[in-house]
Amino acid sequence: MSIPTTDARSSLRLHWARATLGHATLGLQRASTDAGFRSYWRTQGSTPSRIVMDSPPDQEDVRPWLRMRDLLETGGVRVPQVLARNIDQGFLLLEDLGGPTVAQVIDANNADAHIDAAITQLIRLQSITLPADVPAFGEALLQRDAGLFEDWFIGKHLGISLDCADAERLQLVQRRLLDNALAQARVPTHRDFMLRNLMPVTDGPAVLDFQDLVQGPIAYDPVSLLRDAFLSWPEPCVSAWLAHYHARAIRAGLPVPGLAKFQRDADWCGVQRHLKILGIFARLQHRDGKPRYLADAPRFFAYLDAVVPKYRALDPLHILLERTLKPAFIRMTA
Fold first, then answer.
1. 6-95 falls under which CATH superfamily?
2. How high is the mean pLDDT of the chain?
3. Which residues make beta-bridge pairs with 43?
4. Fold observed for domain 102-333
5. What is the pLDDT of residue 92?
6. Distance from CA of residue 85 to its chain's centroid?
């Protein structure tokens, strides 16, 4: 398949939107972009407005997104409605869910209501029975995630080659985090269930960016929501919301452990996720030329500072952070 140039892709996208909607003078305005290769465009000149998802086939196959969308909708999860599709070209016509995400409208006054609504969608998602061929968030994926932190954040971004002692510390903690995740009950797991992937519609929020859904540890999505990659809350709020999720999950028949064990599992999943995201953000900067994501790196260090010292089993990571990684990061940003 030949790869269209940017201008050719723009022309192809506009031609498809005009032909699909039967509007010869329709315009498109960028609505948002993914950290990946998808982009979103809002129609102009017609009512109601629609969204064109552009997923270039040579870079990001749209079929996994469509399959997961259909599975989630069948399970009662609010997802974007698909109005037209051209899979070969990588275009979808979607309902327009509006401009702001929940991350842009949430504040201290409405946070409880937004978090409760998000938990409603999450519990529906976790209650779905997935087809047998949906992959598990198992050893292979967890090992890959662990490698992102070491390869991209430590090696590429900080420019550090760990000595034997630090390398052993990191490997030991990554193994403990991995074992904890593998020991948890498995449910459908979004893997990026956070406020910027939720749209504040009346029958929602609507869930976005679900194409990488897997069978994974039950604490992973709740902590992704409450220790968000782009928005932080006071730890007492996080603890209270985790307890609220836990109570609702029990009522829904989900296989959560006791509250104390669940909160520990959430803490450990959060640590594993924060390390992974630091690696992803470093890769976005150094491989993909998207430096803005690493501006949130201090948030992840703050999360780690709040959680890691609570657990003796995570002491090797605490030592690595305090002696090696945080000083190197501070030197870079000074």
1. Phosphorylase Kinase; domain 1 (3.30.200.20)
2. 94
3. 28
4. Aminoglycoside 3'-phosphotransferase; Chain: A, domain 2 (3.90.1200)
5. 97
6. 24
